[in-house]
Amino acid sequence: MELIYYPESYSVVEKFLNEAKNNKAFPHSYAAYRIIEQLSSLLFDKSYIENKLLWKEIDIALGIEVEGII
Q1: Region label for 45, one of left (φ > 0), alpha (ψ between -120 and 50) or beta (otherwise)
Q2: End-to-end CA distance of the chain
Q3: Per-residue H/E/C for the chain
Q4: How far apart are CA 18 and CA 49, in angstroms?
Q5: Exposure of 11 by Cβ count < 10 A (0-12 exposed, 13-18 middle, 19+ buried)?
Q6: Contact yes or no for 53/44 (Cβ under 8 A)
Q7: pLDDT of residue 70
Q8: Which distant-in-sequence residues (6+ apart) come within 8 Å of 41 by Cβ?
Q9: What's the CA gap between 64 and 59, in Å, rounded?
Q10: pTM for this one?
Q11: pLDDT digit string (tens) for the chain, length 70 residues
Q12: Which residues are CB-neighbours of 49 under 8 A, at least 6 positions away?
């Protein structure tokens, strides 16, 4: 749900990257990990991307793409 409330996708991705832990004992951190894992797979075709610069590049690219549609 949090994803729809952030106008800039990078800020929420950065939040999830900072919180992410692959440990089911910490449900919110594990959820953040799974979100990053799934987005990494969809956007990068990789199992897990931690590099914030790569995420920032995707955010910029998607912003340009969306502006071109509107």
Answers
A1: left
A2: 24
A3: CHHHHCCCHHHHHHHHHHHCCCCCCCHHHHHHHHHHHHHHHHHHCCCCCCCHHHHHHHHHHHHHHHHHHC
A4: 12
A5: exposed
A6: no
A7: 40
A8: 47
A9: 9
A10: 0.78
A11: 566 666 667 888 899 999 999 999 999 999 999 999 999 999 999 999 999 999 998 877 777 554 444 4
A12: 36, 40, 43, 55
User: Which pLDDT value is given to residue 62?
Assistant: 73
Provide the pLDDT for residue 11: 83
**Distance, CA of 60 to CA of 29 (rounded, Å):** 26
Contact at 8 Å (CB) between 10 and 55?
yes
Give me 14's structure tokens: 């950065």
